[in-house]
Amino acid sequence: MKKEQVTELFQRFEAACYVYGNVECWSARELQMILGYFEWRNFLKISEKAKESCKSAGEQISDHFVEINKMVELGSGAQRQIGDMALTRYACYLIAQNGDPSKPEIAFAQTYFAVQTRKQELIEQRLLDVARLAVKDFATELTSHNVIERDLQGNRQISEEHVINNKEARKILLKRGVQPETLPPDADIKKLERKLKSDEKKALKLK
Question: Are 133 and 171 found together in one domain?
Fold first, then answer.
């Protein structure tokens, strides 16, 4: 695929994206044309296969394929209502996966939505990592403060205070949607901190 074609498709996919109910979406009617399907009924066949893939993956179809109506202008200047779908990024990815890979538009879409989905996952994971570091720092600082404030003496009192503060930090993590049991051991905290700093440096260099 030529660079010019890649650039054009990228711009078309980006321009077609809009926000529906606080979620990034693409109009099925617009996606149909971008992917080179000129017949709506042919595009619907692919959409049905994508819905089955969505269901097989354990996802709710209605969360990713939302039936909507839109008004289109006819040649006479009048308007007519037609059926459409608001598609999430994941829905678009599944449609691309079930499309004809010999079509350049489909081949591009498969990569485009796979990369975009991965990018979102990376952002979400980074936010969880940052939240974890912030909560752990909070627990440690709170323990240090209370040791002085309450004049705690001996390993037992200090350890008990640290356990209490870590339990409170755990509650905060749960409220943020982080399952502490799925996180790596505490010994990896410094390693995680170094990774976040390294990622920031790389991002700055790219800019």
Answer: yes
Q: Which two tokens stand for residue 119?
A: 């990018």
Q: Are residues 148 and 184 in the same domain?
A: yes
**Residue 104 is assigned to a structural domain of this protein:** no
Instruction: Give domain status of residue 18, yes or no.
Output: yes
**Amino acid at residue number 177:** G
Half-sphere exposure of 109 (CA within 13 A, CB side): 28
Which one-letter amino acid corresponds to residue 185?
P
Give backbone dihedrals phi and psi of 71, rounded to 5 degrees, phi first: -95, 135
Domain assignment present for 44: yes
d(CA 27, CA 17): 8
Q: What is the three-class DSSP state of 114?
A: helix
Q: Which residues contact 119 (CB under 8 A, 6 or more apart)?
A: none
Domain that holds residue 162: 123-196
pLDDT at position 179, please?
58
* Residues 57-72: tens digit of each pLDDT: 999 999 999 988 877 7
pLDDT tens-digit series, residues 2-15: 788 888 888 888 88
Rounded CA separation 196/167 (Å): 24
Q: Is 0.85 topped by the overall pTM?
A: no
| Rounded Cα distance, 23 and 92, in Å | 13
Task: Give domain status of residue 118, yes or no.
Answer: no
Q: Is 79 exposed, middle or buried (0-12, 13-18, 19+ CB in 10 A)?
A: exposed
